[in-house]
Specification:
The chain is mainly β and 97 residues long. The chain is built from no helices and seven strands.
Length: 97
């Protein structure tokens, strides 16, 4: 008996962000987007505060992370229930509770 392998097909999704996106990091149930000017948007499950909005409310559309508006974020990484952000100054911003 041969098992059929299924493969995912890339599909474009609307971002609801009125800016270009330079990078995306995906956690288990959340996503973090970084714009070319260093802004951070996040959405998805937020049980551990991994979205960085100062609460544990989940969000269905990307929302700007206002706590980092004065920082220039250049890279994001995400795990199952956490996010880490790297600023242009080399500072690391871990996001979880």
């Amino acid at each position: 008996m041969q098992v059929e392998k299924k493969h995912a097909v890339p599909t474009s999704v609307p971002t609801f962000i009125k800016s270009l996106i330079s990078s995306v990091a995906m956690g288990f149930n959340h996503a973090v987007c970084v714009t070319p000017d260093g802004q951070v948007y996040s959405h998805g499950n937020n049980d551990n505060g991994q979205l960085g909005h100062g609460d544990k409310a989940s969000r269905s559309t990307p929302q700007i992370v206002t706590a980092l508006e004065t920082e220039t974020i250049v890279q994001a990484a995400a795990g199952s229930s956490h996010t880490a952000l790297l600023s242009s100054k080399g500072d690391i911003w871990p996001v979880f509770t």
